[in-house]
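> example.struct
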């Protein structure tokens, strides 16, 4: 990116519609710092999002594609397969990823496309006055759940592990440096990467406040083996104290877009089928 690290804030003319203390400001800063440090130019980057406050983190990156509500994940193979050199990032919130878009999130993971998925987790739909989301902890009360949430929360990290995602991590929006490092590592990783970013809402969510996160987060245990899937599951399943860092990474996984393991050419550069194969394909389509 052309922006220098000291120039990562959105220009004053950008219509953001975030509160001044919203965690999206910090997450946006982490994403732009990552683009700068990895020297990713806009022409080599595609960022996909749905429709919520999370998607506004992409508005001034000149590389975004706004998808239909809950459908940013289905588009990532369509971006990556024609040109494998592209850096493809999906970034959105609980609704696009876990609620309406949960089935697409689940189905995208087994494809093992080389993309990075950043999931904003507010643990509530804060713009709807902190209504419960699928990520809300069991028992939490909201204006529409006056007797408390009865469902177990949708844990993006546990689901990603169950579906064999190759890179799993969690960060906190307020810690720009760590979040930047996690996104940096996820983009550099060869495989399907999921980074959950927890963030408080200072206006509507009176439970998961900055103070709550300060008391209930900690770094992953020193010496955690990121190749141990079972250990990653146990840590991802904790709700009393949320661990931050890289939970799991599986190197050397065969990618969907590279079935032979070594072909890095884009589909547009590959040789077209010969005449005989072409005629067979035409006959099969009739």
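> example.seq
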């Amino acid at each position: 990116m052309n922006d220098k690290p000291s120039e990562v804030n959105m220009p004053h003319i950008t219509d953001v519609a975030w509160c001044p203390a919203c965690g999206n400001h910090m997450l946006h800063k982490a994403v732009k710092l990552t683009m700068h440090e990895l020297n990713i130019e806009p022409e080599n980057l595609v960022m996909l999002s749905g429709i919520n406050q999370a998607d506004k983190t992409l508005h001034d990156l000149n590389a975004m594609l706004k998808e239909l509500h809950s459908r940013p994940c289905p588009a990532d193979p369509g971006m990556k397969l024609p040109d494998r050199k592209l850096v493809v990032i999906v970034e959105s919130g609980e609704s696009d990823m876990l609620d309406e878009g949960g089935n697409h999130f689940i189905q995208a993971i087994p494809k093992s496309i080389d993309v990075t998925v950043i999931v904003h987790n507010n643990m509530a739909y804060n713009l709807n006055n902190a209504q419960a989301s699928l990520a809300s902890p069991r028992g939490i009360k909201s204006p529409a759940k006056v007797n408390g949430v009865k469902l177990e929360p949708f844990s993006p990290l546990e689901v990603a592990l169950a579906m064999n995602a190759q890179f799993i991590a969690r960060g906190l929006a307020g810690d720009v440096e760590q979040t930047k490092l996690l996104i940096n590592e996820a983009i550099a990783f060869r495989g399907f990467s999921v980074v959950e970013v927890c963030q408080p809402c200072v206006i509507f969510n009176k439970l998961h406040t900055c103070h709550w996160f300060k008391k209930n987060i900690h770094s992953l245990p020193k010496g955690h083996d990121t190749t141990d899937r079972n250990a990653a599951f146990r840590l991802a399943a904790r709700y009393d104290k949320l661990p931050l860092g890289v939970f799991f990474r599986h190197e050397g996984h065969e990618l969907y877009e590279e079935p032979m393991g070594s072909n890095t050419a884009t589909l547009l550069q590959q040789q077209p089928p010969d005449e005989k194969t072409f005629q067979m394909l035409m006959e099969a389509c009739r």
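> remarks
The CA atoms of residues 197 and 274 lie 48 Å apart.
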